[in-house]
Amino acid sequence: xxxxxxxxxxxxxxxxxxxxxxxxxxxxxxxxxxxxxxxxxxxxxxxxxxxxxxxxxxxxxxxxxxxxxxxxxxxxxxxxxxxxxxxxxxxxxxxxxxxxxxxxxxxxxxxxxxxxxxxxxxxxxxxxxxxxxxxxxxxxxxxxxxxxxxxxxxxxxxxxxxxxxxxxxxxxxxxxxxxxxxxxxxxxxxxxxxxxxxxxxxxxxxxxxxxxxxxxxxxxxxxxxxxxxxxxxxxxxxxxxxxxxxxxxxxxxxxxxxxxxxxxxxxxxxxxxxxxxxxxxxxxxxxxxxxxxxxxxxxxxxxxxxxxxxxxxxxxxxxxxxxxxxxxxxxxxxxxxxxxxxxxxxxxxxxxxxxxxxxxxxxxxxxxxxxxxxxxxxxxxxxxxxxxxxxxxxxxxxxxxxxxxxxxxxxxxxxxxxxxxxxxxxxxxxxxxxxxxxxxxxxxxxxxxxxxxxxxxxxxxxxxxxxxxxxxx
Length: 473
Hints:
By secondary structure, this protein is an alpha+beta fold.
């Protein structure tokens, strides 16, 4: 799914990157886009909003909306600031503010809220939602205190510390002292043309390219002056009109994006790009061949070829004059020798295990000989580097870190820094084959303490304990 956004002619790879560029909250930006705010208002800072949407209409200011609702502008501003639901913005202020709780009369709900040790707005909301009196004083579990300051939720704290929510939750749940919650294992500062940026992400926003493209350019040791070069254009031309990408054109033609991409790669003529696919269930579809009409079965019989073969040739965009060609032999010529099949050749060369790599290179357009040479000479195409070590695949690295492969893949795809790839979440699966919540409590407590002392993940600490127990036995 393409999450890129265009803002004032500049492309951003996600809402998060655009929010960072505008220096506003990500949720605020998402709400403004969802509520169809004009693009020029997306970056307005809190307290500087001059227009406001209510009930599908835009009002020039809070005071303008307040006059429409027939209430005081200051009262409306306070309700918006306190995150009142829109349905309650127009409520009239009650004349009597007295409130009874457990048989005792309080002059107003603020006095009672102070008595109960909760926020007045929280109490008001509970009364409005008709909570039973015995629940009015429940503590708000979302509130979290950190270094003497109170945050409305752990989400707000993670935004303040600029760390992923899962990292903060994990450190809190593992019993880390508060002064270590905001720890960063490494500095992500990067210099570009004698200017310092806090991270690769910030530099990518400055250069107007995606994070992955910039990271790859740095990894390939390209000179600095090439880091900011524009990304490759994926525009495609069809019938004289330019489309931003194959994805956009596939939507216009109402066909599968992968099918269209394959047709363009296989050099189909432009007029056949939007041709519908012949499915097995569509054998009676009429096909025009040499100015005569056939269904798939009739045409296969006429050409004396297999129906499946004919269907594939049509799908692959073969020219009509080749539809009736006899099926080619599976024999392969390689360096002057003839082999029964590709597998026969690979067995002879004793590289049968390289078959997947060879197929991959063949799909990239290499000849058979080039693909074999490439597969024999190169290391594993799925190899991945982590902490100075190389692993054959993401699955092998996931097993090493003690997490699920899907979790590791998602973290890499979302651009997590390497040092956080192995961070366990509350229900992380450990390498013993069961879930963290099922680990015996005594071992779990030992793992928590050991992880803090050694500054390693909780799962790594648990695995270390198991190894030591095994050695002792």
